[in-house]
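Internal QA ticket QA-208
Title: Verify multi-chain structure generation after dependency bump
Assignee: T.L.

Test input:
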Amino acid sequence: MSALELDETHDPERVSWIEVAPESDFPIQNLPFGIFSTERRDPRIGVAIGDRILDLRAIAEAGHLDEVADRAMLCGERLNELMAAGRPVWRALRGRLSDLLRVGGARALRDMPDAFCSFGEARMHLPARIGDYIDFYSSLEHATNLGRLFRPTGDPLLPNWRWIPIGYHGRSATIVPSGTPIRRPCGQRKSPEAEAPVFAPSRRLDIELEIGFFAGPGTALGERIPGERVREHIFGSVLVNDWSARDIQSWEYQPLGPFLGKSFATTISPWVVTMDALEPFRVAGPVQIPAPLPYLQRHDPENFSIALSVRLSSASMRERGCDPSTISRTSFASMYWSQAQQLTHAASNGATIRPGDLFASGTISGALPGSQGSLIELTENGAHPLELPDGEKRAFLEDGDEVTLLARCEREGFRSIGFGAAQGRVMPAESDRFA
Ligand code: MN
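Actual output:
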């Protein structure tokens, strides 16, 4: 087992001279990157610290990052150039930012109050130009639960599942940052009794709780990523809500897999938590039987101990002033296929990987009741609706429902960090008069 690669940026005693609340997702040990704008700033790279955003362009232009990174890659409107720069640059930049923000460190930013703004002033954008988006299916519990629901008479796990990190190509154009409203999709659905399908708004709109990672430097056509070098190719992670219309999905998915039941929208959290920030939370994954083929062999620890939760609030709950209801709590630690295995596999046929490509984990579900990452599992395909605090029942999402995904990493001896939120509210379907 290889040791954790820790340095002074992970020191739990390190504190910032910017005030950070104890429960904040963004202490100085995190330093996630995102793209923000304000009334007087064009979209640009920022770093979250407490409830403030450090304007990376402003401090790069002032020359404070010249020793660690090329100015141009820090002054763009997306993170792709930084993602392409590779791990030595990412680590040097993290070290420099930590030093600029820590008590007792470099003092260069102390007389630059304009280099910061508050979360309240900022609008968050997509962190990268996402060329390709792949969604995996890497939770054993989720694959088993869904197999049971979609194919009740067969073996829930298909014979390839324990050999291949199963995935499909999603639609990058409809990935949206947290807070973007989600329009209920229309599509073809067919009930088992009916002879023909109808085209109508989905009645089984669902969520999928996932974590995605952004690719780093990438590969040329024909090149592969060996398992022992895959760490250099993963920049950082975000929360992903892979909204899913189960009625459209169940009618269309055979034989080629998910299509319009998934491609209408995917929400991600706006702050990319770097793999270097996640390093203290690296843990060994579950034992894999049968042992994967040699190219997929793990270099443990390859999983991450990340506690996840899903909150739901309905329009009526918000009107009555009810707090959102936590409908699921689970962990990323026991995912069967690791992010490293997913990327190694995705590149194993020589397909080009580009900086900023997004790879989502697939729904993260645990074995215990209340630990599943989708409503179809939590309610057993709608048979056992959830009861909300104001007495409403939920089998699938209703218009006005707002879903928030949260993630937090905790480990004895380290400062806790979090991901912020991936949130979206369901809007009524576009008129289906063209059906
Ligand atoms: Mn998914």
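Spot checks passed. The two ends are 57 Å apart (CA to CA).
Status: verified.
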